[in-house]
Amino acid sequence: MGVTHSYTAGLDPEIAAQLAALPPGTFDFDEWTLETIAARRAARAALPVPAAPPTTTVFRDEQVDAAVRVRVYSPPDAGPTRPCVYWIHGGGYISGSALTVDARLNRWVEALDCVVVSVEYRLAPEHTYPTPLEDCYTGLSWAVANADTLGIDPGRIVIAGSSAGAGLAAAVALLTRDRGGPSLAHQVLVYPMLDDRQTTLSSQMDGAPVWGRSANALGWRAYLGSDAGRADLPAYAAPARAVDLAGLPPAFVAVGGADLFRDESIAYATRLLAAGVPTELHVYPGAPHGFEVIAPSAGVSRSCDAEMLAALQRALHPIAPAIDVPAGP
Fold it and tell me: Which overall architecture, per CATH, does domain 10-316 show?
């Protein structure tokens, strides 16, 4: 008996309405091909950018090395040493940029009294694995090496990302563990792109909004080339391949119930828990890929934002455990 589940039939009504109201071609990643990636990127970059809400956050761009840049978001005052969110943008490994105004990162700086470092890694297919991953690792290492200048506490760094950026965040967490690199206090993985094999039930269903089967196959092919799907692919290329997840930082994993990445996200969170890694998993009913960006006012999006913010608050500003004071004689 075949699978009868439909992504579109179960969409959250608020998000479905927002998707229907978008101009044609706004989220058409299933129409992209390897040959048209550059032109599609340029077309998206030329779209009008909505004005960001007013903010007190300030940012500056820094050149890390010849190839890697970062955008540093911070409060307007120097203040005390602050925790840091190291952010990796999404885009299926083939699109997106850190060098745009990001209203979410502005909010995080204001709400969490932190510094955000957003890395501009090189994109596929022009730059295949491991270049984007190494760019992200380079940016993280630079942030730690320049902690004093940036005003950040190297002991309170959270790595975070969405989509392919969350896949890269998971891979950087593995890489820092195995290389003895910078210490990470937490990892925040928002609908992470983790598994090039595309064998889960959710990855095989047709009709996934925003990022469907064709887009997913293209993203992995662009990033991994002919190695996509290979049996002996390194875990750093596709973190779902990792055999050993012990010793990784605590995790927050969020995914929508109508997201192609639903099952691989759930499986990764389950395996983190089995490896003894404290992990918080949220599955948002009826939510497709990118739901909190597409429909930020939807109830399910507000829930995701609030729960993500709460997780970041706990990770960046941990409360010291109470000390039991012995009673006097």
Answer: 3-Layer(aba) Sandwich (3.40)
